[in-house]
Amino acid sequence: MISRTGMLLTLVAVALLLVPTSYSYADGSSSEYVSQLDENGKAVYDSLSVFETSVDAVLSISAEFPRIVLYDSEESAKNAAILTTNNALAAKYLGDPYGIWLWNLPTKSVAITPEVSPVTLGDKSYFTVVSVSFDLSVPEKYRDDVPGILKGVKEAAKTFTGSDSDKAKAIAKHLSGISKEDEEGTVSDLYDALVKKSASSYGIAAAYTYLAELNGLEAITVKGTYYGSTDEGSSHCWNAVRVDNVWYAVDASKNCIMAGTGTAIGTATFASAYSANLDMKDANDLVSPDINRTAYPYPDDTPFLEKYGAYILVALMVAIVVASLYYGVRRGYA
After folding, report:
1. Please, are residues 160 and 171 in contact by the beta-carbon 8 Å criterion?
2. What is the phi/psi pair of residue 173, to 5°?
3. I need a labelling partner for 26 at 20 to 30 A (CA). Which of 85, 230, 300, 301 fits?
4. How far is CA 88 from the centre of its chain?
5. Count of alpha carbons within 13 Å of 141, Cβ hemisphere only?
6. What are the Cα distances from residue 134, in Å, to 58, 81, 205?
7. 3-class SS at 128?
8. Phi, psi (deg, nearest 5) at residue 225
9. Degrees (nearest 5) of the Cα angle 305, 308, 314?
10. Residue 320: helix, strand or coil by DSSP?
11. 6-42: per-residue pLDDT in tens?
């Protein structure tokens, strides 16, 4: 016989399990990655708001899980808590790259400690996650000057004018020509791209996301594999940006601006050259948005001489040859 208390707990647990798992902001807006987090993931994400005020090299973070979920074993409860936390950390890194404490996330695991509690319903035992705790640290090369690094990022930020599509293109152009390869075990970041002006696709994509947000655009970083001239592919980051409620792809490191899945990239298409996989050093459940089939329809702004110069030159040469022949015929030289 289940007690009245046990019955109440059962009803509460069932009710909470039926709550939708996605999160939207109160004003109706949402971040593409944050909207994929459940209530517990959002609690972890919110705990990272300390980024806005702290300048400590190491942060000890903790977050209580407001949504009760029952698991059959302690191990499954802890694994779920770790995955939920990884989702939140990746959402922050890919969608809001200013947090210096996550800049080494693609190369360094975060040690997450879940606190779980046993729950007995009738004659069966379950486990639920109470909270998680973890430490985040600034990359070693920045630890002695966190305030200076963050100030440098803000001072290097740039504003752009025009329509959203104009801004999307201008930000990509601003970040072009600074691409480099990362050394083994290292990863470029926001500071490398904006201040040092030399970064791999990781830093360039983070800079695009950051500048887009500052300029009123919705953009996110997408991590995955780029298949260039080799079949193996290489780890790579690019961006998705939403203009007129449609997602387009931008890869400023390769001068790919507002592309669609069918856009030609060399001898391939964007869809075959880029493959998204949002896992950091550790796995997460996030997915990237669907990119539009066609590229953004920018008007052709190629300068007149660049566009038609070759044709004009050929026409002039033909005209000179014809005039010379005509002159020769008239003079009896031909």
Report:
1. yes
2. -65, -40
3. 85
4. 13
5. 8
6. 10, 12, 26
7. strand
8. -125, 135
9. 110
10. helix
11. 433 443 444 344 333 444 333 333 589 999 999 999 9
Q: Which two tokens stand for residue 48?
A: 């990272």
Looking only at the bridges linking them, the beta strands covering 246-251 and 124-137 are: unpaired
**What single-letter DSSP state applies at residue 288?**
P
Backbone angles phi, psi at 333, to 5 degrees: -85, -10
CB atoms within 10 A of CB 190: 28
137, 149, 227, 278 from 55: Cα distances, Å:
11, 10, 39, 28
Distance CA 252, CA 254 (A): 5
Q: E strands along the chain, which residues? A: 58-64, 112-121, 124-137, 218-226, 234-243, 246-251, 256-259, 264-265, 268-269, 274-276
The structure tokens listed for 146 are 């966190």
What is this structure's pTM?
0.83
DSSP state letter for 292: P
pLDDT in tens, the chain (334 residues): 334 334 334 434 443 443 334 443 333 335 899 999 999 999 999 999 999 999 999 999 999 999 999 999 999 999 999 999 999 999 999 999 999 999 999 999 999 999 999 999 989 999 999 999 999 999 999 999 999 999 999 999 999 999 999 999 999 999 999 999 999 999 999 999 999 999 999 999 999 999 999 999 999 999 999 998 766 899 999 999 999 999 999 999 999 999 999 999 988 999 999 999 999 999 999 999 999 999 999 986 555 566 556 677 776 777 676 666 666 666 665 5
Q: Which residue has the tokens 């609690």?
A: 43
C-beta atoms surrounding 93 within 10 Å: 26
